[in-house]
């Protein structure tokens, strides 16, 4: 079998083990064969099903008129899963079921998550020089430095840099000696113990010196050198300098090995400082421009009615309060409702918005601006892509909103959403789910 074929088959297996269904209308999903119970991992009901229900589709578990779960049927076929199934919100407007990648929050496949799952899914006997308890996220991926430097740090800590000693271990016919001093070129030698490296570390503008001779266990010393503070004149106010120095050492080592010459220790350090400083400045400029970016409000046509929605949900709880507040020139309506089987704040916000859209349709409003203080929800609706959990709800919001002449979904600050927030909280505190409709005459 060729390398190409092996890779294709490996990719197929990776997908087969990490794809799952999100429920729309339930017509494409086999209850017992397909993974559809979770949007985080592959989960199917554990059978065996009785003969009569073997071919059951997920849509068979819903009431045909409303596409809501048929509680009687759930009790009959899947009593153990009754509660968790009710936490899945199918599409009432008949959106098709969808296959998603379970490794990411968005349900979209990314190379990064694919690689992660491939590596974690198999027994990885090739641990690098660091132990299994090494916190990669904290020690490498969350470092304040450029992505290429993180990648380099990861290779370094994994022992995956082709230094002389490593190549020699792998029976690559090269001289394992350090080209600068003749000692065995291991990772610790090249980056800390070699005369050249020592000199570079000595020159580094750290508030406290790096003890190169004490550097034996890189994994253990890693974080302390990464969080070392730099002296003010260096111009590096935030982030870690050490990984940049290591990167620069590696670049100069390669130049020395392959081109026969390299920069002096002084220049090696100053190269590290220059790129680190450049990265810090760009980053600061980016955060600054992000924070002063003003959102331009959408121009609303005349007679547009605003409906604000909000949800109240307590972490760990399964009930939510939904509130909607209609602001029209003549009067204000309000609506609130308590619902059960809600497992996240985002889902609660989504359900509140769905009620708002239904309310707008019921009131036969034609031009509506829907507002919510959940930026995640608003961007999910506006982009049409969202986390798999909310698939059915967002599909319904979009389907219902096609009946309006003008519709827009906008984010508002929490302080501006007080009325809807109060309604939602009140609805959450009412123990029995119930619907409260009210009309309030607007003060203005
Ligand atoms: Zn050396």
Molecular structure report:
Helix content is 41%, strand content 11%. With 444 residues, the protein is α/β, with parallel strands linked by helices. It folds into three domains: 3-119, no CATH class; 136-291, no CATH class; 305-440, Nucleotidyltransferase, domain 5, CATH 3.30.420. A six-stranded mixed beta sheet has the order 7-6-3-4-5-8, with helices on both faces. A hairpin with a 4-residue loop joins β4 (320-327) and β5 (332-339). α6 (147-158) crosses α11, α8 (187-193) packs across α9 (195-203) and α9 (195-203) packs across α12 (265-291). The chain is elongated and about 80 Å long. The termini are far apart. 33% of the residues are buried. Residues 122-128 and 440-444 have low confidence and may be disordered. It binds zinc ion. Zinc ion binds at residues 178, 180-181, 183, 189, 194.
What is the topological layout?
Layout: H1 3-18, E1 19-22, H2 71-77, H3 82-86, E2 98-101, H4 111-121, H5 136-141, H6 147-158, H7 164-169, H8 187-193, H9 195-203, H10 218-226, H11 242-259, H12 265-291, E3 305-313, E4 320-327, E5 332-339, H13 345-362, E6 367-372, H14 375-383, H15 391-401, E7 406-411, H16 418-429, E8 435-440
Parallel strand pairs: 3-6, 6-7
Antiparallel strand pairs: 1-2, 3-4, 4-5, 5-8
Helix pairs in contact: 6-11, 8-9, 9-12, 11-12, 13-15
Bound molecules: zinc ion.
């Amino acid at each position: 079998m060729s390398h190409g074929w092996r890779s294709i088959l490996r990719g197929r297996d990776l997908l087969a083990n990490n794809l799952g269904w999100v429920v729309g209308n339930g017509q494409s999903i086999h209850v017992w064969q397909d993974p559809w119970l979770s949007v985080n991992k592959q989960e199917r009901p554990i059978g065996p099903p009785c003969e009569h229900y073997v071919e059951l589709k997920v849509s068979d578990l819903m009431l045909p008129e409303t596409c809501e779960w048929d509680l009687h049927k759930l009790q009959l076929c899947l009593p153990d899963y009754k509660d968790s199934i009710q936490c899945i919100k199918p599409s009432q407007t008949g959106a098709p079921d969808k296959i998603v990648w379970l490794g990411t929050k968005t349900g979209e496949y990314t190379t990064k998550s694919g690689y992660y799952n491939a590596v974690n899914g198999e027994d990885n006997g090739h641990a690098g020089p660091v132990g299994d308890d090494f916190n990669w996220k904290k020690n490498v991926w969350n470092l304040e430095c450029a992505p290429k430097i993180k990648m380099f740090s990861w290779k370094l800590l994994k022992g995956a840099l082709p230094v002389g000693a490593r190549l020699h271990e792998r029976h690559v016919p090269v001289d394992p000696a350090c080209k600068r001093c003749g000692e065995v070129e291991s990772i610790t030698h090249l980056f800390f113990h070699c005369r050249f490296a020592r000199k570079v570390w000595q020159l580094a503008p750290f508030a406290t010196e790096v003890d190169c001779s004490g550097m034996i266990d890189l994994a253990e010393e890693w974080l302390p050198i990464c969080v070392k503070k730099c002296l003010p004149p260096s111009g590096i106010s935030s982030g870690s300098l050490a990984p940049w120095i290591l990167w620069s050492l590696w670049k100069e080592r390669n130049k020395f090995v392959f081109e026969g010459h390299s920069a002096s220790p002084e220049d090696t350090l100053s190269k590290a400082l220059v790129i680190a400083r450049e990265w810090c400045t760009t980053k600061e400029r980016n955060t600054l421009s992000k924070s002063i970016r003003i959102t331009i409000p959408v121009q609303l046509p005349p007679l547009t009615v605003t409906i604000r929605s909000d949800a109240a949900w307590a972490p760990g709880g399964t009930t939510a309060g939904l509130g909607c507040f209609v602001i029209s020139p003549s009067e204000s309506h309000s609506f609130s409702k308590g619902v059960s089987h809600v497992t996240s704040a985002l889902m609660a916000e989504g359900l509140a918005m769905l009620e708002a859209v239904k309310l707008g349709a019921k009131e036969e409003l034609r031009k509506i601006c829907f507002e919510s203080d959940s930026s995640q929800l608003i961007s999910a609706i506006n982009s049409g892509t969202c986390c798999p959990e909310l698939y059915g709800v967002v599909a319904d919001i979009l389907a219902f909103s096609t009946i309006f002449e003008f519709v827009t979904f906008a984010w508002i600050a929490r302080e501006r959403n007080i009325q809807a927030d109060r309604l939602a909280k009140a609805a959450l505190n009412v123990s029995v789910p119930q619907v409260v409709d009210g009309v309030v005459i607007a003060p203005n």
